[in-house]
Amino acid sequence: MISRKVPCRTWLSRISRRPEACLFSSVPPQPVPPLANTLQGYLSALEPLLPPDEISHTRRMVQEFGRRGGLGPKLQEGLEKRARVTKNWIADWWVQRAYLESRQPLPVHSSPAISLPRRDYNDWKSQLVFASKLIAAVLDFKAKIKMGQLPVEYMRGKPLCMELYPLLFSSCRIPGPKHDYVAHYGRSRRSPTHITVVRNYQFFQLEVYNSDGSRMTESQIHAQLLRIRSQSWKTDKEPMGILTSEHRHTWGEAYNRLLKDKLNKESVRLIESGLFSVCLDSPVMRISDEKYASRKAAQILHGGGTFSNSGNRWFDKTLQFVVGEDGSWGLLYEQATAEGPPVAALLHHILEYCEKPDPKRAPIVPLPMPKKLYFHIDREIKWDIEQAKQNLDILINDLDVNVFNFKIFGKDLPKSYNMSPNSFIQIALQLVYYKVHSEVCPTCDIASQRMFRGGRTEFIRSPTNQSLKFILAFNDASIGRQAKLQLLREAVDAHSALTERVINGHGIDLHLLGLKLQAIEEGLSIPKIFMDTAYGLATHWKLRTGQIPANTDSVMCFGPLVPDGYAVCYNPQADHFHFSITAFNCCEETNAEMFARTLKETLCELQELLQPAV
User: Fold this and answer.
1) What pLDDT shows up at residue 7?
2) Inter-axis angle of helices 379-398 and 289-302, to 10 degrees?
3) What is the rounded distance in angstroms from the CA atom of residue 567 to the CA atom of residue 544?
């Protein structure tokens, strides 16, 4: 019988912080799951998605792969050996395959945006005051990491790996011909002491430490931002940052052309090596109050287009804080360095810091002028920029973003019925997809692997036999309420149990990827199970989901993984949920607005199932 105990949620939930002065806590190595368990889990994940005859074909193929003396056990042995001699047997492979080998543009397809609640101002003066506070807050967070004062995070009494935190700063993705790599400039002997500020498409190097090594105060930073504003009036400057929005191969070629010029190379290196970037945006284009939240999230995600703020981005940069003139703000981050949890912890620190007054007086010392970064643009680079502008606008116009606040109930409702809120929402999303498309689809819910040294993320495959049974019964008038309620509970419990296994290092997707790459490593042919149509279908993620809990009304936003898919992010609060839904307009079958409307209706129906009207 599956336990009905509410499990840990996937990202930051139930994570506690203890004030040890040690950043690198002792965490165990990531286990290589037993081969038999993974193969059985793979077949179980396929059952809701495939007809019985196709399952039978795949089962025979899987059994052949896993038999004693066969290819599977040989590759498993290779992975176990790899696990003994590496810090993490899968993390480097995962980062390479999931991020660095992808050739798609970073905006929309890869880098997530986090949209924060609008600040209470609507002019450039307040924009710069808040930006100064934000910069000071981030520097304070960085100082805590350096001094070993960042509390170690725990989940279920077990420490979590903290080693990604220092890598957030002075890092940048670099385009390459076949795959990218990440440059970590903070590891150099002379660690960078500047950030990059961009306004009106113009980049500035801003030193944020005084000559004695102390951090600049908020008032010092504010004085420097005023100087930057005075140097960055709207001109006919080319939006150099647009180049970073291109297809990675195209950007890689333009990057090499750009760096042939000494001036360009110096400017690019200063952007790449900066601690982080701050984008001072013009206001979000406003159509109606109803669509403002969606527009705001979209602007942080991609800049809003080449006639808006897309030129104020360097999409390769790990951390880009966006501060709008209208009070909009948020963060865009590149995932090859780190996924959600460290970024969410950073934002939590910023929000706490922003509630405090400026703790320091500004020393009366002359400050060096912020350095404007210049570029030499020849005919080829000019053509690259024009192509990038066209391609980015096409991508932006193709993406439908729908952000809304569901206020009828929040996570307290499923919790009151001893159900995991995350699993409850996952079942709701499965039901919504079925209502809209009359089928269940491959769905990945993201789970952290930070219980293990160097752990990154793993997928929870949300469709289960139990969720399928509930979905098919939901609109069946011949099935009574109590029976449906029991099926809902069984579906939620099945997802919760799956979550437990994945968090404990027994998911299937990292292991399957490892087996495939181990075969390539050993010079073998790719095993047949990975050439099977079932595997192609099972990894065509039509529904990409992620729960990003936060103590404020923020919402994460990213694009679908496949052209005919959706991406759904949600932030559960006690009495409401924040959702963002994206889909591509070029696909006639998908529609973000339709999905959002159906989700609202479905959540109300599930509330009625749990709490029938008297």
Assistant:
1) 34
2) 140
3) 5
Decide: helix, strand or coil at residue 301: helix
Whether 404 contacts 579, CB under 8 Å: yes
Q: How far is CA 391 from CA 89, 236, 257, 395, 481, in A?
A: 38, 20, 19, 6, 51
Give the number of C-alpha atoms closer than 13 A to the C-alpha of residue 513, restricted to the C-beta side.
19
Q: Is the pLDDT of residue 4 over 80?
A: no
Rounded to 5°, the CA angle 470-41-582 comes to 60
Alpha-carbon distance of 24 to 151, in angstroms, equals 10
* Helix residue ranges, H only, 399-480: 412-416, 421-437, 465-474
For CA atoms 132, 19, 552, 603, the dihedral sign is positive
The predicted pLDDT at position 25 comes to: 55
85 pLDDT more than 70 = yes
| Residue indicated by tokens 């019964």 | 473
Contact, 347 vs 550, CB < 8 A? yes
Please tell me the pTM assigned to this model.
0.94
Q: Which residues pair with 557 in a beta bridge?
A: 113
Farthest-apart Cα atoms in the chain, separation: 79
Residue with tokens 């199970």: 529
Q: Report pLDDT digits (tens) over 421-456.
A: 999 999 999 999 999 999 999 999 999 999 999 999
- Residue written as token pair 């963060």: 331
Asked if the model's pLDDT at residue 364 lies above 80, the reply is no
Q: 178 in helix, strand or coil?
A: coil
Q: Which residues contact 333 (CB under 8 A, 6 or more apart)?
A: 111, 112, 114, 318, 319, 320, 343
d(CA 35, CA 20): 37
Q: How far apart are CA 463 and CA 113, in angstroms?
A: 26
Domains of the chain with CATH codes: 15-87+407-610 (3.30.559.10), 99-398 (3.30.559.70)
CA torsion sign, 549 to 555 to 561 to 564?
positive
429's tokens:
């999303």
Residue 287, CB-side half-sphere exposure with 13 Å CA sphere? 6
The single-letter code of the amino acid at 375 is F
Distance CA 134, CA 44 (A): 47
Question: How remote is the C-alpha of 11 from its chain's centroid?
Answer: 11
- How far apart, in Å, are the Cα atoms of 217 and each of 95, 124, 129? 37, 20, 12
What is the spatial order of strands in the sheet that 457-461 belongs to?
399-406, 577-584, 566-572, 543-547, 443-448, 457-461
Phi, psi of 565 (to 5 degrees): -120, 180
Mean per-residue pLDDT, 71-79: 97
Helix (H) or strand (E) holding 445: strand 443-448
The pLDDT-based confidence of 360 (bands split at 50, 70, 90) is: low
- Which residue in this structure is represented by tokens 């647009």? 242
CA neighbor of 547 nearest in space, from 344, 265, 266, 367: 344
Give the C-alpha separation, 195 to 208, whole Å: 7
Q: Are 488 and 470 in contact (CB under 8 A)?
A: yes
- Identify which has the larger pLDDT, 357 or 34: 34
Q: In whole angstroms, what is the distance from residue 487 CA to residue 467 CA?
A: 8
Phi-psi region of 303 (alpha: psi -120 to 50; beta: other; left: phi over 0): left
What DSSP assignment string belongs to 249-260? Answer: HHHHHHHHHHHT
Question: What are the structure tokens assigned to 457, written together?
Answer: 């993320």
Helix, strand, or coil here: 3?
coil
Q: Are 464 and 498 in contact (CB under 8 A)?
A: yes
